[in-house]
Amino acid sequence: xxxxxxxxxxxxxxxxxxxxxxxxxxxxxxxxxxxxxxxxxxxxxxxxxxxxxxxxxxxxxxxxxxxxxxxxxxxxxxxxxxxxxxxxxxxxxxxxxxxxxxxxxxxxxxxxxxxxxxxxxxxxxxxxxxxxxxxxxxxxxxxxxxxxxxxxxxxxxxxxxxxxxxxxxxxxxxxxxxxxxxxxxxxxxxxxxxxxxxxxxxxxxxxxxxxxxxxxxxxxxxxxxxxxxxxxxxxxxxxxxxxxxxxxxxxxxxxxxxxxxxxxxxxxxxxxxxxxxxxxxxxxxxxxxxxxxxxxxxxxxxxxxxxxxxxxxxxxxxxxxxxxxxxxxxxxxxxxxxxxxxxxxxxxxxxxxxxxxxxxxxxxxxxxxxxxxxxxxxxxxxxxxxxxxxxxxxxxxxxxxxxxxxxxxxxxxxxxxxxxxxxxxxxxxxxxxxxxxxxxxxxxxxxxxxxxxxxxxxxxxxxxxxxxxxxxxxxxxxxxxxxxxxxxxxxxxxxxxxxxxxxxxxxxxx
Length: 510
Ligand SMILES: NC(=O)C1=CN([C@@H]2O[C@H](COP(=O)(O)OP(=O)(O)OC[C@H]3O[C@@H](n4cnc5c(N)ncnc54)[C@H](OP(=O)(O)O)[C@@H]3O)[C@@H](O)[C@H]2O)C=CC1
Ligand SMILES: O=C1O[C@H](COP(=O)(O)O)[C@@H](O)[C@H](O)[C@H]1O
Description:
Blueprint: E1 7-12, H1 17-32, E2 40-46, H2 52-61, H3 67-70, H4 75-82, E3 85-89, H5 99-112, E4 118-122, H6 129-138, E5 149-153, H7 161-172, E6 180-183, H8 190-200, E7 214-222, H9 231-235, H10 239-256, H11 265-277, H12 285-291, E8 292-298, E9 300-302, E10 305-307, E11 325-330, E12 342-347, E13 354-361, E14 380-386, E15 390-398, E16 406-414, H13 426-435, E17 442-443, H14 445-464, E18 471-474
Helix pairs in contact: 1-13, 7-14, 10-11, 10-14, 11-14
Bound molecules: NADPH dihydro-nicotinamide-adenine-dinucleotide phosphate and ligand LXAUTJHC.
């Protein structure tokens, strides 16, 4: 097990949703698993006026995200966790002199012996990231003379290629690239990491992982919820920025990448950057028209309950052109993937919450058995990222009886079968990695920029292109019907159920 040094975690934006909903519960899991270092304290910093006690109550003792879990624990144990939390009011603004913050950091460091090691977690609106980094540097809080300093940056990493570059350059003025940890919570998911293991710890997949055997790759990221309370943020973002540019292109990079020479962070990250740089950038209007689809959900009734349309959501413009559904077909220009289409879609208000990767293998070159030449019955490897995490291989078996009728059967593995193993939550895993100085599962500056290079022309076309279509779909269905037209040959997306174990084996279309 890697060593976690004593340290202080400073969270900017500590009064916000992310801190209470994700960060503190993840720290709590690490505390329960005894994975926090012996000397560890958290200093929340925000504009809100709060005492240490009020902060502890808000994020630990009275937090709705923790309360049910605290009930069975002994009081002194809970106290032990809660006592690690402190709060510093920044005096009304993030853009201020941090000398008082510095004094507080030094006092905590001396009292709790955190050895000068500090993680700064930026959990504020992104417009403040560079300001905070600058003020930390001005107060000498970035210096590594007396312990390491790391900076965790939350998404979004920019709004476009230009703004992402500006953010990277801005942060790199005050922190070096190895100090910067850009968090993408999809990389913290076990099943996303397992993509690497599936590919590079088995001999049976990698020889087939190329244009000679793979017909196409399909990735679906579906959420059943709408924009919920984040209409204001989402309307300025949209599905492509919110999910595709970051989480989905991270998944794509793990599928596309070449084998790294080892498992060291830079070895893996170098290959991911190469993969992202090999995505064919679409610039031609006709190409963008033919290969991209955007849509918005419309009012509907789901299970007897009326659901608002996107344009009626709080914080959303009544004539908004922001997409809640994006489907993109693209190619990867390298030796391995030449001419293999990738189909990737992401959307809100789908029939179910599911994220999966499907590798569709080619048909046998010569069909000798009855019914075996139909595309939808070819071999598939279904990698279920969430929920019901697992892997399922579809292969042909003989239907009992006369002749050689072929049907699909499933070979599968489910994470739920590892009942005794604690599967870490994404933020829990990523926080621990940063505490240990492991940046493998964090995005590097060039990685983020390569992803924006691919996405920027699509956004530009959707914004300024002529006659760009915006489809509608009723909340609760699998997007607009026209999206099927994107899938050549087969003509429809695989619309999965939430339960992989119930994925039909013997069936007509699966
Ligand atoms: N919430 C989530 O699930 C996710 C969030 N993120 C990202 O994490 C970051 C934090 O998210 P979240 O906690 O939801 O954000 P919040 O909107 O809750 O903001 C966090 C804190 O920042 C301060 N703040 C908010 N708006 C302003 C403003 N205009 N000017 C100055 N300070 C402001 C507030 O603290 P105070 O007023 O006390 O200073 C607030 O408590 C964001 O960058 C977001 O994009 C990423 C993925 C998921
Ligand atoms: O980053 C984001 O992710 C969530 C979906 O995350 P998941 O782990 O539940 O799949 C999404 O709802 C949100 O809009 C987006 O900002």
